[in-house]
Amino acid sequence: LQKHIFSTTVTAVMSNALLTFAQFSSVVHKMLDSAMLRGAIVLSAEVVLVGTVATMPYALPANGGVWTLFTVQSPGVFLATGISG
Q1: How far is CA 11 from the centre of its chain?
Q2: Residue 49: helix, strand or coil by DSSP?
Q3: To bridge 6 with a disulfide, which of 1, 33, 41, 81 should be the other Cys (CB 3.0-4.6 Å)?
Q4: What is the C-alpha separation between 3 and 63, in angstroms, rounded?
Q5: What is the rounded distance in angstroms from the CA atom of residue 8 to the CA atom of residue 53?
Q6: Could you read off the pLDDT of 41-61 as tens digits, one per residue?
Q7: Distances from the Cα of 21 to the Cαs of 41, 59, 67, in angstroms?
Q8: Burial class of residue 33 in the structure, from the number of CB atoms within 10 Å of its CB (0-12 exposed, 13-18 middle, 19+ buried)
Q9: What is the pLDDT of residue 36?
């Protein structure tokens, strides 16, 4: 994998998930009715996401991209699954 393409792809996929959270998470819990709270959560998560994607693949050995995908994307997937259940 080319590192720039990989980083762009992961960031785009996860940013899409964060945008979906920002738009529709108020359906899940009344506390998330506040657009300011959702915005703060998304902004914080986006900063963490970009920082992680910018550094993690380069900190891992060869073929680290697969582990980065798992590490960066899986927690959001598991969290969303748990909340929806």
Answers
A1: 8
A2: helix
A3: 1
A4: 11
A5: 9
A6: 889 888 888 887 777 766 666
A7: 9, 29, 24
A8: exposed
A9: 92
CA distances (Å), 19 to each of 23, 77, 82, in order?
Answer: 6, 14, 19
Q: Which of 34-43, 45-54, 60-69 has the lowest mean pLDDT?
A: 60-69
Own/partner pairs, 18-26, CB within 8 angstroms, 24+ separation: 18/42, 18/45, 18/46, 18/49, 21/45
CA distance 48 to 38: 15
Tokens of 38: 């959702």
pLDDT score of 67 more than 80: no
Angle, alpha carbons 42-21-39 (nearest 5°): 30
